[in-house]
């Protein structure tokens, strides 16, 4: 490819960081490669430190793109406004703060190709994105056969500390208290590591009427979840520019 505008969507996670580095190495000499981030207030503050470290690593500034029509980057404000947090219709925070922010950026900029941080472990997600969202998406990490574990190793070898969320035992650097998860294991980990945020989510979800967690297949409110409740392995929920 030559003279194309390629956008890497950086989510402050290890995989999208590696995707940014590889895209610049692979396409940067003959194309315009930019890296874009959609900020969300509820992410761990250490994500901004990681973003700065990645900027130094890739040798360019990361562009911040927002949905300017809503005037906020807070998921909590979106939930309150919509009176909906998450369910079969997805999560409104991802729609407003990620997807619509991406669409606004694409409207104002000529984008030939997109790259997201889908690893070979997530090839089905990559295919889903291409099928349902954007056919002009380069499956870079999938083609390179890189796993998420490989991405962790690459970041570590580069001397960059991974976002703190990984240290706490979470599988990604998404917002703290991600409403896409219905896992008792996930929410009890939030309760253990971030008790005030768990309490905040419990109060807001009760107010809105959102039963965010499943116990033995039945939806319950967060304040009904017992500290001893357990589920399976925490799922790596996607929170890039489309919502599962």
How is this structure best described in words?
The protein is of the alpha/beta class and 244 residues long. The chain has a domain of 159 residues: Rossmann fold, CATH 3.40.50.620. It contains ten helices and six strands, in the order βαβαβααβααααααββ. The strands form two sheets. It has a four-stranded parallel sheet with strand order 3-2-1-4, covered by helices on one side. Strand 5 and strand 6 form a beta hairpin. Helix 3 packs across helix 4 and helix 9 crosses helix 10. The radius of gyration is 18 Å and the shape is globular. The protein starts with a strand and ends in a 24-residue tail after the last strand. 40% of the residues are buried.
Poorly predicted runs? none
According to CATH, what is the topology of the domain at 5-163? Answer: Rossmann fold
Shape: globular
Instruction: Give the name of the CATH architecture of the domain at 5-163.
Output: 3-Layer(aba) Sandwich
Q: Quick one: biggest sheet?
A: 4 strands, parallel
